[in-house]
Amino acid sequence: MRHFLFLIFLLYIPVCLHAQSDTSFFFSRVKQDSSKLKLNMDAVYDRPFLQMGKMPVALGGYLEANSSYFSSDGVSDGLSFQIPRLTVFMSATIRQRIKFMTEIEFEEGGKEVNIEFAALDIELHPLLNLRGGVIMNPIGSFNQNHDGPKWEFVDRPISSTTIIPSTWSNVGFGLFGKIARKNWVWAYEAYLSNGFNDQIIDNTENRTWFPAVKLNTDRFEESFNGTPLKTAKMAIRHRKIAELGVSWMNGVYNKFQNDGIRLDHKRYLNFLALDVNTTLRSKTIINGEWVWAWVDIPSTYSQQFGNRQQGGFIDIVQPIIKGRILGWSESVINVAGRGEYADYNIGSFAENNARIADHIYGASLALSFRPAPQTVIRANYRYQWQTDFLGNPATRTGGIQLGFSTYF
Question: Is 123 inside any structural domain?
Fold first, then answer.
């Protein structure tokens, strides 16, 4: 850790020198407007980077910080301040058509340090490129395009964090490609990687809980059961209409054999996700995602462990003021709303055919100010209804969040 921080310090020395001398010969910023991504797949490289002269390494990152006040059924823990994440990314063009990119995230004030992405790309043809290393499994849109400064909301979507493990990455390799013709863009990704383990049903949540797999840091060293996780995505976009993405993930999560001895049959899990985003003529941005998950649960587990889950969200963002505000010439004030849902146990009780009610609804309102495309200052009001497994009256939680997120 000390060596990594020292490396970052050395790389940032030229930044400090440039800030004092204001000499663009030594230092330049590659500007990206985060609101105009070509495809969600492009998000890994479509970020603002800092680069010194002709050095091959470009450096960037983003920070999120916020405060929150929530109460559940009238009970509150008071006001809290958080720095949920500080992310640093570096990229390099090693040779023509050979690129390297890494993303390292410090979470919860540095309690956790994760390599979210560290991959080598070899470009053979626009439709055939190789990628290997720590790859981001392309399930849904948020898992690929999750940077805080791109969103008007402090919290990440419920379904994209509690059904799809948020920022889900693994060691693996695969292919990707893209082709454009006039107003149409089509792209794909397909990977084999290490995958899930039995913590998705053996966890402290006492339910089927896919995010628990992120506790298995051994997945960066070896596969839990020797069977690769398969992930594939296809996206198509009309430049003037919308982007539509379809993604699929399939793998085995249990240890079905040990030293050649058969322990169980292979237990599979499957994810299917649809995502769409568009910008209307009124400049209204609509962004949504829906995911389904299926998993083979052993018969010895109770009905509390669901074998099907589903959920999704929709964001609607409307710019209301654009132009010069407080001296910033590219400022935007947005209002936004989000509706979301997650059902962790689709089905009915075997005894009486009554619906299992392990689900959550959420609604959020946002007011955000962007003094520049790469920085957002946001105020959110969030309300959610969560119903337990037995269908008892929902726990109602509401609260206010204030914070900012910025690339640097």
Answer: yes
What is the pLDDT, as a whole number, of residue 49? 86
* 91 lies in some domain: yes
- Cβ atoms 293, 346 nearer than 8 A: no
Block residue for tokens 């560290």: 118
Residues in the chain: 408
Domain for residue 323, yes or no?
A: yes
Q: How confident is the model at residue 36 (pLDDT cuts 50, 70, 90)?
A: very low
For residue 188, give every residue at least 6 positions away whose Cβ sits within 8 Å of its Cβ, in sequence order, or none: 175, 176, 177, 178, 232, 233, 234, 235
Mean pLDDT of all residues in the chain?
89
CA 76 to chain centre: 29
Distance (Å, whole) CA 14 – CA 10: 8
Residue 166's SS3 state is coil
**Close Cβ partners of 374 (under 8 Å, ≥ 6 residues apart):** 32, 34, 48, 149, 406, 407
Please indicate, yes or no, if residue 17 is contained in any of the structural domains. no
Distance separating alpha carbons of residues 104 and 404, to the nearest angstrom = 20
Nearest CA among 4, 6, 17, 94 for reference residue 50:
17
Beta carbons within 10 angstroms of residue 376's beta carbon: 27
DSSP class per residue in 345-395: --SB-TTT-PBP--EEEEEEEEEEEEEETTEEEEEEEEEEEEE-TT-PSPE
